[in-house]
Amino acid sequence: MSFILAEHPFFALTGALYAASMALYTAAWRSTREIIGRAATGVMAAALLVNVALVGGRWAQAGRAPFKSLFETGVFLALCMAAVYLAMEWMYKTRVFGALAALFSAGSIVFALTKWDAEIVRLPPALQSAWFVPHVVIYFVGYAACGFATIVSLVQLFRPELELKAGTVLRGTPISLEQVSYYSIRFGFTLLSMGLLMGSMWAKSAWGDYWVWDPKENWSLVTWLVYAGYLHLRRLKGWRGRANAWLVIGGFAIVMFTYLGMGLLPTAQESAHVYTDQG
Amino acid sequence: MSPATLAAPAAPRPAPAPNSLPVARQVRQIIWILAATLAGAGILQLFVPMGTAVFVAACTVGGIAFLLWALLVRGRVRDTLGGFRFTAVVLFVLGIASAVGTVILQGKPADIYERAYGRGLASFILALRLDDIFHSLPFAGLLALFAAAVTVSAIRRWPITRYNTGFFLVHGGLLVSLLGAGLSALFAVKGRVDLRVGRETADKTSVTRNGVSTGQTVPLGFTLRLDKFDVDKYHSEFRMGVYLPAKTGDYALKASFDPDADVRHRLPDGDWYRVKEYYPDMVTTERVAEVAADGMPALQVRIGEQSQWIFAGGRVDAPDGKVVAFDYQKPAPPGGAMRHLLKVGDKEPQPVAMGDSVAMPGGGRVKALRYFPHFSMDLENHQYLNVDDKPVNPALEVEVAGGADADGKRWLFAKMPDFDHGRGLKMPLVYSQDNNGGPAPTAVLVCAKDSTVTVTTADGERTIPFKAGMEIPEAGVKLVSLLAQARTERVPSTVSDKPNNPGLLVEVSDRGRTYEKLLEARNPEPVRFANGTALVFEKREDEVKAYRSLVTASAGGESVQTEVAVNSPLSFRGWTVYQVNYDPKDPSYSGLEVVKDPGVTWVFVGFGLLSAGVIWVYNVKPRIRKKPHPRPAAAEARA
User: Are A262 and A133 in the same domain?
Assistant: First the structure.
């Protein structure tokens, strides 16, 4: 892997910046010095910028959106998580979730490196569609929002004492972890719904069918159904605690399976939709 | 959303059902409803033939039945069916069914299930119709429950107000989508139209289901003609591919680079390569170059106007039978003229010339007919050939006449003395050559080790030190130069700027050892590294960029000519025409698919309403509700 890092210094830099911001965010949990928190945010923003340059550079080099392979989408997922996280940090004025968000982005970069596939593959006719970019971007921002909700739910489940500290890093007002997770799922669910709609319209224009019970379609539907179930259950008494937090985490596990696990399914052989791994 | 909203607890919603059941009883009721529906539908489908119409009918009848049950039997069932808990459970169960449909192969012949899952599990799957789960009656039952739940919850929230607009958009959208999906399932027609440019028109389609022809044909209501078909390809290019060994034992392309000169590309384990020179239209010439090591001694000799190199162990024939021989040690002086020798049985070999005869002991004669220095055989035409004048495979044709072995003509080979074409002779004949056929010629013997030149003539010999450019008048040759270590190299150059035969001169570092290599895209030989990495300079296959059919659709005086491509279908008279196939062997052929689907518009309208509703409910409404309400002055004062 070292040769890849050396050949492509932007990858090394992006991963290193995410890792550095993770360290700073972790330090900010224990320190009262605001400079550490500010530095963490600054490094995360820098990582996001370099990540944008990485995606933009590849876009220019390939002459198409770099969303074709697991390698390309792994890099883009890191970007989406960083962007969603920084937006959430700005909205909720807390850095408590920064360490896990940076870990997620750094993990995505490392995952992309393990799926290293620098070869630029040309788009087959079916992917040459105006739907390609909005469909993928909306889904990945949606994935990132659900991922952020999962981070919050993990904190809610395993470090509930942070509920009080959550708001205190900058502002001093406590916030509800469960509600932050819920708002993030609401945002993610909106995007998943739009992504599903766009995907079916694209399928119709490319293949003549808006729904063919393809494994990727099915698992996107499963994701949507699970989050829809979560949103319904949350309206009931007693469903704003640990059970719902587990549901958020389970939903995201399905999201990740939809993204990465399709190759494991026996029905994937006939799918026109599953990412191919050249390695 | 502002932190203020987060800090405040969510506003409690008005409970829609005043007479809700206790949670435990409601959960039991939900389980019963679902279990009864799934079990009932599962049993029913044993007696009902499967099919789209049955499926849609089951959804419709089931949905209406559940709805009537909820509306007519007031109270608890309505509360349950229209409640969040029931809807959530139905959503989860639908999710499980969708997942099962990806774990179990769908719509395959029965024997495939036996092979994949074993007889026992296969019969279970087939009995429960899990092999076509999305058309099974239990799935229809789930959809019916879902539709009923959506409708009941909508009825309970009627009328539409400012705050529940989003709810009605989402749930109305779901119902409209389901309606559209039902129309699609019942009335959509999909078929193939195969056309060739200018030859024929189509006014009907052969219907397909899941990509397989049903044998049915349906009139289109218009004629379709293919005016032109084009396959666009991406421009071809030459790239340096980096291949790494894959788990499958094969090689996988991991990266590729433009052949830009002077960029050092890092490879695994510290290896690297750099393109030193790029030749778009490469030709190579050979030259002998001095090297520091791993070469051979080389001598450049000029005879008349011709100059040539010989390596150690080689010789050059000068005019008049004179010879230049070169070796590391002093070469042995060449012998006299070559003689043909024929050995008959145990007798001593005898020199023969063409036309001579040799007597065989015990009677008969052997006659030498002709000599081929480089014998070869045209196996197809049964002809013997002489390829050139170098003694690569010296052969003598002889004729054996009279005696016990009289069998006509045969070939004897100096390098294969016991080879007799499987004929067998009682009296073996062996052909050989020697160089004792006359006085030794004038020879120039060059020794690389001592850098000396020995000239031998009939008058004796003299040895002198080698000097570059020295003339040897006895042999009529000039010794131009002598190299202690030399190699033959291919010298590349380009004859034009067009990429007719791109080639690269690359510098490669493999575990610290650096060397140069010439690569040719026309003959892509990999550069292999010790760790398994392979570099290949190769032409990328021409990949298809687009299939484009220019078609004319005509009906009743109306005619439309347009281009159909993947992602760019044609819509005409209720049909949509898609580009789906082509034949690389027949450039005039285009495979088109036609679809008539009265439900698709409703599906998309439903999806659109759903998306708009979700955006409204979760992203717009919270902001509307957040707007501060004007407070009465008294309240202000109290605050």
Answer: yes
| A180/B6 Cβ within 8 A | yes
Q: Which residue has the higher pLDDT, B215 or A30?
A: B215
Same domain, A103 and A135: no
Q: Do B3 and A194 touch (CB under 8 A)?
A: no
Please give the residue range of the domain that contains residue B506: 238-281+495-539
Q: Are residues A97 and A170 in the same domain?
A: no
- Cβ distance A213 to B106 less than 8 Å, yes or no, reads yes
- Reported residue count of chain A is 279
The pLDDT value given to residue B422: 67
- B92 and B179 co-located in one domain: no
Same domain, B377 and B524: no
Check CB contact of A126 with chain B, cutoff 8 Å.
Answer: yes
**Residue A275 pLDDT:** 57
Is B1 an 8 Å CB contact of chain A? yes
Residues A88 and A211 in one domain: no
Task: Supply the range of the domain harboring residue A251.
Answer: 126-267
Angle, CA A206 vertex, CA A204 and CA A134 arms, to 5°: 80
Give pLDDT tens digits for B473-510: 888 899 999 999 998 888 888 988 888 888 999 999 99
List all residues of chain B from 60 to 119 with a beta carbon under 8 Å from chain A.
Answer: 84-85, 87-89, 91-92, 94-95, 98-99, 101-106, 116
Contact between chains at B84 and A218 (C-beta distance less than 8 A): no
Contact status of B618 with chain A (Cβ, < 8 Å): yes
Q: Does A279 touch chain B (CB under 8 A)?
A: yes
A122-132 pLDDT, tens digit each = 788 888 888 99
With the C-alpha atoms ordered A21, A23, A28, A34, is the resulting torsion angle positive or negative? negative
Which residues of chain A make contact with B567, given a CB cutoff of 8 A?
A: 125-126, 128-129, 202, 205-206
Interface probe, candidates B13, B92, B157, B183, chain A, greatest A C-beta count within 10 A: B92
Within chain A, what is the greatest distance between any pair of CA atoms? Answer: 59
Give the residue from chain B lying closest to A278, CA to CA: B252
pTM above 0.80, yes or no: no
- B530 and B619 housed in the same domain: no
Length, in residues, of chain B: 639
Task: Please name which of B383, B85, B61, B619 lies closest in space to residue A230, comparing C-alpha atoms.
Answer: B85
User: Average pLDDT for residues B405-428, to the nearest whole number?
Assistant: 78
Q: How confident is the model at residue B323 (pLDDT cuts 50, 70, 90)?
A: confident
The owner of tokens 């896990």 is A100
In a domain, A232, yes or no: yes
For residue range B55-97, what is the model confidence (pLDDT) as tens digits? Answer: 999 999 999 999 999 888 766 788 888 889 999 999 999 999 9
Residues A87 and A52 in one domain: yes
Domains in chain A: how many in total? Answer: 2
The better pLDDT of the pair B179, B584 is held by B179
| B73 phi/psi in degrees, rounded to 5 | -90, 90
In a domain, A36, yes or no: yes
Q: What is the DSSP string of A76-137?
A: HHHHHHHHHHHHHHHHHT--TTHHHHHHHHHHHHHHHHHT---S-PPPPGGG-STTHHHHHH
Q: What is the pLDDT averaged over residues A139-148?
A: 96
Which stretches of B179-295 are assigned E, i.e. beta strand?
Answer: 189-196, 201-209, 212-233, 238-245, 251-257, 264-266, 272-279, 282-290
Preferred mutation among B96, B131, B536, B614 to probe A, highest tally of A CBs within 10 A: B614
Looking at chain B, which residue has its C-alpha nearest residue A92? B3
Q: Is the pLDDT of residue B273 over 80?
A: yes
Identity of the residue in B85, B98, B269 whose CB atom sits nearest the CB atom of A218: B98
Point out the residue among A197, A202, A205 whose CB comes nearest to the CB of B607. Answer: A197
CA distance B623 to chain A (A): 13
Q: Tell me, yes or no, whether A53 lies in a domain.
A: yes
Is there a domain that residue A275 lies in? Answer: no
Tokens standing for A43? 């490094």
Kindly state whether residues B136 and B180 are assigned to the same domain.
Answer: no
**Residue B28, SS3 per DSSP:** helix
Do residue B618 and residue B474 come from a single domain?
A: no
User: Of A118, A139, A164, which one is at a domain's C-terminal end?
Assistant: A118
Of the residues A84, A118, A152, the one at which a domain ends: A118
Q: Are A86 and A183 within one domain?
A: no
B residues 536-575 closer than 8 Å to A (CB): 543-547, 565-569
Of chain B, the percentage scoring pLDDT greater than 70 comes to 92
